[in-house]
Every structure is written in structure tokens, then in C-alpha cells.
Amino acid sequence: MSRPIAEHELSRILALVPWIVAHPARPKTEVAERFGISVEQLESDLDLVLMIGVPPYSPGDYLDVDDDGEFVTIRLADQFSRPLRLTPAEGLALLAAGRALLAVPGSDPEGPLATALGKLERALDLPEVVVAVGEPTFLEAVRDAAARGERVEIDYWSAGRDELTTRRIDPEVAFFAMGEWYLSAYCHRAEDERMFRVDRIRVFTPTCRLDASGHTIYWIDNVAPKDSDVKLDVKTPDSFAFSGAHRLNDQLELLADVTWWHWSKINQLPLIRTSGPSSGQTLDTLVLDLKDSWRFSAGANYKLSGPLLLKFGVAYDQTPVRSADARTVRLPDSDRYWLSAGLKYTVSKSGVLDVGYSYVKFKDADINNNQTALGRGIVNGTYEASVHVLGIQYQHTF
């Protein structure tokens, strides 16, 4: 059984055929983007184009689609190149239908269809025929939400059930077909793709901004649910260390260490709600995009007298932050140098006193974090930091 063709699908096919005919050997990705559809949907449309022909439907009476997997070309059958003889009524009907097709997103207003309609209009000796496509109230808001990757909440009237429902949807593309504007979106109530007529949307409220993976970047205004539990799963980085020690004599011991940290495994940290009506939704996503790093250190232990041991050390610790663009106010980290000294004093057979001091100097860290696309503004500047660490420990064995 042949599958039914939706009206908006037929309208789209009638619009894309003349464009591909006029632009042969174009990438399918370009064609799909122009008409606001996926490559898979375009390939499905091209399968239908192969069935377009005229009687007696011999091999030469069909449109020819040349699809090599990446590029596509459509060639018209000979029948389509023959001049048509139309009555004035047929010409007017064809002109009005053609003007409506030009309103379909992706149609070329200066392409072959527009040129042919201009010739037809002049042949009919009519005043300019204008097909006005009305715009429903929330059309511009729908387009903006799809372009910005927003999740929205709508009150939608279903004509078939005469019912008004509230839904959260992820708008994908708005298009005009057969006299109406439609919105293709993922509906969280139905947990599937759905088609909505834009003029039947009664209330339209943006809720949150999404990233390319569908994770919530931030909530808009005060529409975020308030009370719920959340979880954040953090996997600590793997590390590989090589350490060595060499005793030169009874008093002096040399130490060295090289450690590699697998920070690049931590790319994003999603914060997920685990209770309430929005359980399972991503509240926020911390984008880190870290790189692997190294730490190099060297030191020495010097036994000054029987109970007293002196300790010295230096270290260089690389930051996992990639660049000034990737640096955030949450993690304004930079390469750092350590200079440490301390002593260990054996008070008695059961008591040991440790004292240590470290000075940590961070390299000046530039930040140029631009998040205007997410509504968060720009942070631009330089971080300067140093740290003094003093530690005292007494250990007593009973």
C-alpha cells in the first residue's frame, strides 16, 4: 500500500523540484538546510519525485533524479519542456497556485518558478497577482525560539478534540504549507515529534535555553521549577605517576616525581533534577572542556641531627584550562609554581612533630569568556593569585 502524502510535504516537494532543477549537482546538506528539513527527509522526498511523470508513464516520461549519495540533480522529462496551451481560467489558477508555492520557505524568489510565473502573468495581461501569507500571532516568537534553541511552554488548542492543553516543546522549524503556518517540534507531553498549527497556539512562554545536545544551559526569567532534589555526577581524572628516591649518604636523600592527569575525560558536568514534576530534566550544564596536564616536582630530605629532619621541594603544575576563552570564573586556574620547606622533629619514641610551609605562585591568567549567546555577558580581564600554606601536625602513637 502506498503511503499517504501530507499536504505540507507535497507543497514542499513542488517547491524544491524547480530549485534543484535550476541548481544541479548541489550538496544534499545544502538543499536540506535551505528547505528546513533533515537529509533523511530530503532523501524520502526524492524517492517521491522519482514517481512524478505524465501519461503514458513510459521510462522517458518521469522526472530523472541523479543522487550519488552526496550531491543531487533533477532533470525534467521531455514532456515538461513542451509548451502548454491554457485557457485563461487555467492560467489564473496556475498563477495563484505558483505564487503560493513561492511563499514556501526555501523557494527562490528569483528562480525558474518565479520567472515562469512572471511570463504567465504577462501572457494573461493581468494586474500583478499577489498571494499574501498571513502571519499568526506567535510566528515570530516560534522562529526566534527555534533559532536560539529554547524550550517553550504553550497552551495549544486541538481542533479535533476541541481541547486546550499545556505542553512543553522544543521548536525545530516553522514552515508555510497549504495556506497555514506549522511548527515542527519535539513534544515532551507526547515524548515524540509533533506538528502544531501556529495560529492555534494561545499562550507562548519561553522556559529555558538548550545546547546542541539538548541539555539545559540556563532557565529564562522565573519559570524554572523551584523545589526539587538534584544530582551531579563527577568522575575524578585518571592519573599516572612515576616517582623516585635516591639516598646519597646517611644525611641526604633526593626525591623526584612526574605525574600525568587525564583531565580531558571531564568535558561537561550536567546538573540533573531527581524529584518533582521536572524530574530527569537537566537544570544546568557546566561546560569545562579541560585538557590533560602534567606535574613535575623535585625535593630533598636532609637529616640535620638525630631527631631533626629538614625537607625542601619545588614543583611545576600545569593547568588543565585550555585558553583564555575557555577559562571561567568558576575555574580561573593557571599554571603554578610551588616552593616548599619544612621539618620533622622526633620528640620521643611515640611523638613526632611536622611543620611545613609552601608558597604557590600562579601565572597571570587572562580570561575572555564570551557568553552573550547564552544571555550571560562577557568576562574579560586577568587573574593574579598567590597562596601561602602553613601546616603543623603532631602525631602521637599510643
Ranges with pLDDT <50 over ≥5 residues? Answer: 1-5
Number of helical elements:
6
Can you tell me the overall shape? elongated
Content-based structural category: alpha+beta
Looking at CATH, the homologous superfamily of the largest domain is: Outer membrane protein transport protein (OMPP1/FadL/TodX)
Largest sheet: 7 strands, antiparallel
Indicate the percent of residues in helices.
10-25%
Number of strands: 21
Here the CATH topology of the largest domain equals: Porin
Number of discrete domains: 3
Radius of gyration: 34 Å
Identify the CATH class of the largest domain: Mainly Beta
Beta-strand share of residues: 35-45%
Q: How would you state the average pLDDT, rounded?
A: 80
Q: What gap, in angstroms, lies between the N and C termini?
A: 88 Å
The appropriate CATH architecture of the largest domain is: Beta Barrel
Q: Write out the strand line-up for the largest beta sheet, numbering strands in chain order.
A: 11-12-15-16-17-18-21
What is the N-to-C succession of helices and strands?
Answer: HEHHEEHHHEEEEEEEEEEEEEEEEEE
